[in-house]
């Protein structure tokens, strides 16, 4: 059962996230989706300090979100899709850890097959033969390697070694890493507010590990 829920949540998480991206700005969609991992870190907390780290990470994510520059009247379905993706992300963390403990390195492969079993038909229904275009197939292969084949096995290795609450807060460092890569490779400079947000997220990530008790 954990493997089945892990596979379903994996497919739905990505499907819902891209549905959100088609309706609301990327920064806002990502920040809303991160409510999932943050909720996991709070749900699994055993110390008052854990809530402080989660709040600090949430504050950093809010500062990274370009809400002030977003158009008024966000598409409500975009917000709903992003929230649903966050809920699937929470399930992915919880059940992925359980499935990884039982199935090890095979978990990602099995989970991907389960998710593909219902996501691929949706793609075929939406795009049909356009999916067979050499350009689409080539770009799809690159996206598949960089977004699934490499990161998910690494995440699974982390899930089987870290408490779910710790993993949830550590995952909140993704926007910070994205901002740093944008600066290094795309020349996207960080404002003072964005730099402060990155520092808050990194501090929360370090703090939740440093102050945890037991496993």
Structural account:
- The protein is mainly alpha-helical and 215 residues long.
- The protein contains eleven helices and no strands.
- It has helices spanning 2-21, 26-33, 35-43, 48-64, 76-103, 107-127, 134-149, 151-159, 164-171, 174-186, 192-210.
- The chain is globular.
- The model has no long low-confidence stretch (mean pLDDT 80).
- Helix fraction bin: over 70%
The rounded Rg comes to 18 Å
Low-confidence region ranges: none
Structural class: mainly alpha
Number of H/I helices: 11
The arrangement of helices and strands along the chain is: HHHHHHHHHHH
State the shape: globular
Strand-residue fraction?
under 5%
Topology:
Blueprint: H1 2-21, H2 26-33, H3 35-43, H4 48-64, H5 76-103, H6 107-127, H7 134-149, H8 151-159, H9 164-171, H10 174-186, H11 192-210
Helix pairs in contact: 1-5, 1-6, 2-5, 3-4, 3-5, 3-9, 4-11, 9-11, 10-11
Quick description:
The protein has eleven helices and no strands. The chain is an all-alpha fold.
Provide tags for this entry.
single chain, 215 residues, mainly alpha, globular
């Amino acid at each position: 059962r954990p493997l089945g829920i892990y596979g379903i949540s994996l497919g739905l998480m990505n499907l819902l996230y891209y549905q959100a991206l088609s309706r609301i700005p990327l920064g806002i969609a990502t920040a809303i989706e991160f409510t999932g991992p943050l909720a996991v870190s709070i749900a699994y907390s055993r110390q008052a300090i854990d809530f402080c780290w989660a709040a600090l990470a949430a504050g950093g994510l809010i500062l990274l979100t370009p809400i002030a520059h977003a158009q008024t009247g966000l598409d409500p379905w975009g917000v709903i899709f992003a929230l649903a993706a966050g809920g699937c992300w929470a399930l992915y963390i919880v059940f992925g850890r359980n499935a990884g403990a039982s199935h090890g390195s095979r978990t990602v492969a099995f989970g991907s097959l389960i998710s593909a079993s219902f996501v691929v038909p949706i793609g075929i229904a939406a795009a049909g033969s356009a999916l067979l275009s050499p350009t689409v197939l080539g770009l799809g292969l690159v996206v598949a390697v960089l977004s699934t084949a490499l990161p998910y096995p690494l995440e699974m290795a982390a899930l089987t070694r870290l408490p779910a609450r710790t993993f949830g807060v550590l995952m909140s460092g993704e926007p910070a890493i994205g901002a740093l890569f944008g600066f290094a490779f795309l020349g996207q400079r960080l404002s003072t507010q964005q730099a402060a947000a990155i520092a808050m997220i990194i501090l929360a990530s370090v703090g939740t590990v440093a102050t945890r008790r037991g496993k």
